[in-house]
Every structure is written in structure tokens, then in C-alpha cells.
Amino acid sequence: MAVPTISITRVEALEGGYLRYKVSLSAPTTDEVRIDYRGFEGSAKDSPLNQQDYTVYKGNGGIYRIDTLVIPAGQTEGEIVVRARPDYLDEVDESFWLELFNPKGAAFVGNPAVVRVLGIVQDNDGTGSDLAMFVSNPIVVEGDGGTRRAVFEVHISEALASDLTLNYRTANGSALAGKDYVAKTGAVTISAGATTATVAIDLVGDNSIELNENFSLVFDPPDAIRNGHEGSAGTATILDDDTGNGAIPIIFAERATQTEGGTMRFRVVLSKATDDEVRIDYRTVLGSATDAPLNNRDYPPQTGTLVIEAGDRVGFVEIRANPDNLDEVDESLWLELSGPQNARFAGYQKVERVLGIVNDDDGTGSNRSVFVSSPTVVEGDSGTRQAVFQIHLSEVYDESLTFKFKTSNGTAANGSDYIGKTGSVTFLAGQTVAAVAVDLRADERLEGDETFSLVLTPPAGGIVKNVITAGKATIANDDDIHEVIRGSESANRLYGGTGNDRIFGYGGNDTLGGGSGNDTLDGGIGHDRLEGGAGNDRLLGVAGNDTLYGGAGKDGMDGGSGNDRLYGDSGNDTLKGDTGNDALEGGAGADRLLGGSGGDTFVFRLVGHSTVASSGCDRIDDFSRSSGDEISLSAIDAKTAVSGNNAFVFIGDDAFHKKAGELRYQHKNGDTLVLADINGNGKADFAILLDGTFNLKASDFIL
């Protein structure tokens, strides 16, 4: 059943006033709707120690920065209130962002992980124009083909009496023009009386396993824009959707910036929701900021586990940016994520590090710093992988900045482990993120992890203030011998290498990973998690409520006793639930699904997971209404031309009526075909084959 969609628009207020956001639903519901929200800094600041510009309020009037909006059943509107703090400074108009996430009972249009809406704090001190511009930072899932777009919003803080034309161009980050997106140069006009326009950049979809990537849209602000280049660029993030399988979300962590005295919030986003909670370990890693208590500590060191609840797509890690009275350069720390459960990092990463910037608020003048990431990449046995160094500026600059770079050996050697590189990277005026990619040399040698560095030379003139201008890449070895790995009666975490491994969990709630190669994983007794990885693997849950992920390749999976969840991923897989009430999801490829005894659910998330063509059509061998079996299609949008996640309409064995969203069945050669029309052309776009003849009912499906 389709749920209502959520809408919200930008709001502005003078200093001392209130910004009242109206959050609207497209239709009332029989249950309450809950939407998490938070405010975060743009050019306006929320730290009470730094001439605070705004405060986000809870529904009861208290001060809070992460909260939940509740819209009662039967109503279609809620309100979020933000106070625009007064001051006596003659300054340009400032901005912050209100972010909505993790909706329950309703959905965002287009199903993004988050919706961000601008808040404008308009200055009311002094004379003259305070006009400012601000550009959004869109996040888009890549896709495998067709046309997807990163849509940038460009805002001005006040409406003008005449048209305002803004010239723009795209700039590479880790995403490259022509390979990942279509470069564009042009102009956009904000009409007289209006305050917003958009620029859409086409993306290039592919099937390559790669990192999440980014690029920028950079504007050339005219003299009428009083904040110059401070708000003249936005950064788009392209989330990879080729790593892992269709059932496992990809993790993206976003850089965080906070002025001294405030709380830094790292946002962690999943590319899609999952039926299981996602757990990700984290720890802080030193950058130029210090965590030592005896050395004017800039932040407290932290370790922990982030939990994103089932059905949610966003979580946060909070770190305090301690205040001080030192006039110093902007400083950095890194948040390292590792050990994800029920989600994966993009590309060939074992860990993911995301930058945190602590902006100095003491003294005068620029504190601009540059920071270089330290990527960790699994080596591989063949082909070309890359170590991508992200390069960040803590503050924009009003002219182009060029940094020279060179690679430098550590334990990894130029030529045998990586391909050395020298050159330069340029930030356009207003741009704050760029990247340098270095090719690695794969091999099958047994060796330890190796490292090399990327060293920057800042431009002359003291424009960049800090002295740590290098990042260190780690090439993680993945070569191993074929192994038999045995656990114990405790909860074990056991992982194979590149060979054809046999891994036994025995008792306890185990986690087994096959790695590459044709592996056999036996969970034994307990509630186990098995991940086959690459290769043609055999996964055996045995006893307990197990979760099995086949990975790439032609995999065979048997849940055993218990209520199990089986995910095939790519390849022509065979999934057998065995006893218990199991959930089976074949993923891409022509899969064979056998629920076994119990009331089983056969899950289909994407139209491409079971095609009309026999080469990709899934087969359910033992569908049984009397046992309580069901076919779940609720994750598929039945009407792609209509916003929201629309449910199918079951029409029995009638012919299609050329109406999008119809679901029917027909008997053919002693079997039953389930057919769906997504686009309304009267032809099937999706098919499932059931072994045997069934007169299906709507109750056989979760629509």
C-alpha cells in the first residue's frame, strides 16, 4: 500500500525572529507519522560559545538538536520551530540546514535517505545589502544505466527586483567528468521575486565496484552577492550500488565540520533500508587535533558501535569539539568505521575514514588548512584497483588554488606495489573537496599490509596555514592459502582468504566470511551469519535463526532448521529455506527458490531480480498456500511514473488493461507465471515462475 509523501520548503526570518517550518503530508494516515530531524551549521553557527545564530527547538519548547516530529493520525501537517538569534553585528545573511531523516509511516519523494531544506537568518543590523548565496550538496545512488541526475539547489537569501544570472561549471573530485558524470558549463537565472533555482547534472551509471565518489558545482558569484565564494559551491556525492548484493546497503559517511565549543555530528547514511539493524564499529583517529588530556585536548577520544535500526537509513556519531582561547589553524580528526554488520563499505575497503574539521574561533585572519585522507584498499589478485586520496580545504578561497603532489614509498614500492605519480590538483574558487587516485598493482604473493604516501606542496604565500600535508595509503593483503577453519562453542568471527576454504562455526552465534574462492561455510548450532563472498559457494545454516548471503557467483544455500533469511546476490543461485518460517531473496540472476516446510516468504526487491526473459527469471519450486507461503513485492514501486512506492493491483488471470501497476498470473505448460506491468504498456516487465498450477489470490502476495 502506498504511503503519503512528505514535503517541506525553505524558510527565512530576521535575526530575533522564528523560522517555522511546515512539514506536510500528501494525505492523512490512520497511524501517526514520525520523522527525525536536526539542524546543522551552514554559515550560521549553533555553538553557544560562538555568537550563536540559531537554535532548533523541540516540540515542547526545549532546546534540542536531534529530535522527532510526530504528526498525529488523521492530520497532514506538523511544525518545526527554529529561533534566529539576535545580535548587533552588521553581517551578510547566513544559512543553516534543517535535515529530515528516518521517516516512519510516510516517505520522501523519490526515496532519498535524507531531505535537507535551507534556513536563512537575515541580518537586520547596519545598512546596505546583505545578499548571500548558498548551494546544496545532493546525494544520489549511481544506478547501472539510464539517466540519473544530481540536482543542485542554488539559493539567494532575499528576493530581488530584477533577474540574477549566475555562471557555473562542474569540477572533478573523486568522480571524473566523462566517466562518472557529464561535465557542464552554463548559467542559471533566478527570476525577479524568486529566491531559488536548480541545476541538474547527468550521471554516468555503470556496473563497476568502486568507492562512493564526489564532484562539485562551482558558481562565479557577481558583485551583488555579498558572501563572495563562501557559499558559491556545492558537492554532489554518488553512492556506489555495485558493491555487495541488492539486499545489502552501502555505507556512506559524510565529512563533519564544527566550530570550537560545539558538537560535531558525523552523519552515516545507508544507500537503502534493510530489514535488519545495521551495526558499525567506530573509533576516532588522530589528525592534527589532539586527544591527549594534558595537551589542551581538542576533542575526547571515542570508540563505540553505531546502531541504525531496521528500516532506518541514517545514524549519527557525536564528538565534542572542545573550546579554547588559542589563535590557531583549523584542525582535523578522523572517524574510522569498521566491522559493518548487514551493510558494506563501497569499493574494496576494509575500513572507511571520514574527516572531521574543528574550525578555530580565536583571533583574526584566516586559519585555512588542508587535510589528506589515508585510504585502506584490499589489494586484489589481478586487474587495477586504486587508492583514492581525498583532499579537503577547511575554508574556501576566493581564487583558484593549485597544490603539487608526489607519491612516496613506505613499505610499498613504486612499480611493484603501486604506480608512482606526480602532478598537481587545483581547487576552483569556492571548492573545498578534490582527490588524487593512484593505481595499485595486484598480485598473489603472500605478504603483509604495505603503505605509501601522497605528499602535497601547498601554494606559496601562506594561503594554507597547516604543516601536515600528507596522507598514507594502506594496501591490505588478501592473498592466502586454502584453509580449513574451525570455530568453537563460543561466538566466533571466522574469515577465509582467496582460496577454496571450509569454515565451521560449531556452537555459538557465529559470523563466517568465505572471501574469494569456492568456499563451504557451515554455521552449526546457533544464530549465525554466513557471507560467501566471491566464488561459487555453499552455505549451510544448520540449526538456529541464520542469515545467509551468497555473494557473487553460483551459490547453493540451505538455511536448515530455524527461521532463516537467505540472500542470493548475483549469479544463478539455489536457495533452500528448509524447516521454519524463512525469507528467501534470490537477487539478480535466474535463481531457484525452495522454501521447505513452514510459512515462507519469497522476497523480490527490484524488477531486474526476476525478468521476463528465462535467463533471469526466478523459479519457486514448492509454493504452498496451505503452509502460509507468500510472495513479497512490496519493495517494488508498481508505478514508476508516480511518486512514492506504489503498490500493485492484483487482477487475477485477467489480461493487462494497459494500466501501470497491474499484477496477474497465467498458466503455461503446467506451471504458473506471475506477471507485472510497471509502465502501463500492457506488457509484462517482471515475471516469476511457480512450479505447478495455482489459481492465485491477492492474499498470496504482500503488495
From TrEMBL:
Could you tell me which residues belong to the region Disordered?
A: 551-582
Highest taxon of source: Bacteria
Q: Which InterPro entries match?
A: CaCA, CalX-like_sf, Calx_beta, Hemolysin-typ_Ca-bd_CS, Hemolysn_Ca-bd, RTX_toxin_determinant-A, Serralysin-like_metalloprot_C
Residue spans of biased composition, Gly residues class: 551-562
Question: What EC designation does it have?
Answer: 3.2.1.14
Q: Carries keyword Signal?
A: yes
Q: Which PROSITE patterns match?
A: HEMOLYSIN_CALCIUM (PS00330)
Residue ranges annotated for the Calx-beta domain, each copy included = 117-220, 234-338, 354-457
Q: Which cell locations does it reside in?
A: Membrane
Alphabetic keyword roster:
Calcium, Glycosidase, Hydrolase, Ion transport, Membrane, Repeat, Signal, Toxin, Transport, Virulence
GO MF terms listed in the record are: calcium ion binding; endochitinase activity; toxin activity
Q: Where does it mainly reside?
A: membrane
Which protein is depicted?
Answer: Chitinase
Record the organism.
Mycoplana azooxidifex
Supply the source organism's classification: Bacteria, Pseudomonadati, Pseudomonadota, Alphaproteobacteria, Hyphomicrobiales
